[in-house]
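subagent[fold] <- orchestrator: predict structure for attached chain, return tokens only, no commentary.
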Amino acid sequence: MTQQSIGAYLRHGQTPFFRLPAVMDEGTRPTAYANADVVLLGVPFDGGTTYQPGARFGPYHVRRVSALVQPYHATHRIDVFAALRVIDGGNLPVPPFSLAAMRELVQAEVGAIVDAGAAPFLVGGDHSLTLPSLRALAAKHGPLAIVHIDAHFDTSSPELWGEAFHHGTPLRNAIEEGLVVRDGLFQIGIRGPWKADDDAACSTRSGARIVTSDDLEAHGTATVANEIRDRFATLPVYVTLDIDAVDPAFAPGTGTPVPGGLSSRELLRLLRGLAGLRIVGMDLVEIAPALDHADITCLLGAYALFEGLALRACAPR
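subagent[fold] -> orchestrator:
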């Protein structure tokens, strides 16, 4: 048997997300996308990391453990995969050394998904993939409201590393490019020491609402989720979830862990509480399986992704 090309191997991954139908043939993708409500897409790229790499392997391992997730959401009372036509669009065959090529490929693929009338759900890979995804979605929907769940602001500038588009910069770039509606950024899970007194300045100038992990504990996930729903009730919403928002006791498999984060339960409750928003896309990033233990980070990622799909199933169209 002839071995597949590297590009073909990267395109289909190993096993489909959630045991769903997978698009293996490049020629069938346009038709498949047109028949889907949601396309799950792996982006095996970690060339934007500034500390421990390894997130390029996230899509493969989240796929593997997602086979355990059953389709019926007991809280929302909905069979997610009966309510939505969801397919696995495979992995983007991104070159591992080129941030620019990754952005171009992600923006084009997300654009194709959106043009077909489906919602993109991306699994990374590092957080640098968020910017091109937002570019493609904003071209369709206009400026977006963003629920950003993360330990970090991700509003860094290029001075430190000499690179404007690494995994610590996507929210700054999105704000500066006008991809985020004014007062449309909600950042949850922020914690840890800052580089300087003005670390939050980019976010606050845009009207962002910042909820630290301590704030979330003090006020509760229901209160925070209700505030998000009230603020973003009429807007197209994108959810970007960096798994390092979760405390490394619950999610050790990530490259930039910060103690004192959300528990697994808090994360899932928070996502569950967003039901009713018009979710137009989501990404799950920064899972580094080589740093994981007993798949607990990958499993949490798969269940968080399922919560996002459930939100889409409950969303007004």
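orchestrator: received. Logging for downstream: Residues 254 and 308 are 20 Å apart (CA to CA). The chain is about 35% helix and 20% strand.
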